[in-house]
Amino acid sequence: MLLMTLVTNAAEYRLQQTDVIRMTIYQEDDMTTEALIGKSGSVSFPLIGPVEVKGLTVDEVAKTVKDLYEKDYFVDPMVSVVVVTYAKKWVSISGAVENPGNVAYPEEGALNLASAVAMAGGIAADGNSRSITVARKKGGVARYSLSESGKITLLPGDTVIVPRLPLPQAVVEKTATISGEVRNPGNIKLPKSGKVDILTAIAQAGGFSKIANQKECIVQRKTTSGHRAMTVNLKDVRNGRSTMVFVYEGDIVIIKESRF
């Protein structure tokens, strides 16, 4: 229900990266600006240049822009700011589904686990419908059966993994899951050694998306006492300032959006 509140109450909605906004000034048509909010969180307006808008309401942006124009360019300008397109939000579905990848989170209302699986084409013939893993973007891992999935509400950025039913040992493939802001989220195959370095793992998923946080990621790993979340400093790994981190069978690597 949170998304419905944000979108319906536009005056209270706080702007996010990839939102598209439009600024207009009454009787000043040539000043109209429509722009996407990028990693910097700023939008460049005519005459006054970049203005930080991420995290502000449209009314707060309008007041800021009005004050800047009024200071040097216009007398009491009537500034209006609206959201043209809200930022897209996703849930990543991987494993034994017919169409693994990202499914769009609705702009209004919520998305439950059953609907997300259905949007990914449903569980494949070799999928295990009794042990569906949900890894939360903000941490935490849980398992659910398909029969109870209609009661499980997902949040934007969550990762859903549908495991495959056991196969003869000779044909079992070792896999890990790369989710979030990569070009091809889903499972990647691991070599016979059962591990791959984290940079290669991200490359196998198509590399970072345009809005990915390339400095760090989260690795969710199953242990004898449950799942353990690790934050990996990718920048230090790339520069050799930190030892290489390896991805193992069953790991879930979560690449988040950049905050800048």
TrEMBL record:
GO terms for molecular function: polysaccharide transmembrane transporter activity. The keyword Nucleotidyltransferase does not apply. Keywords: Signal. Residues 91-140, 176-228 form the Soluble ligand binding domain. Residues 9-83 form the Polysaccharide export protein N-terminal domain. The keyword ATP-binding does not apply. This is Soluble ligand binding domain-containing protein. It comes from Oceaniferula spumae.
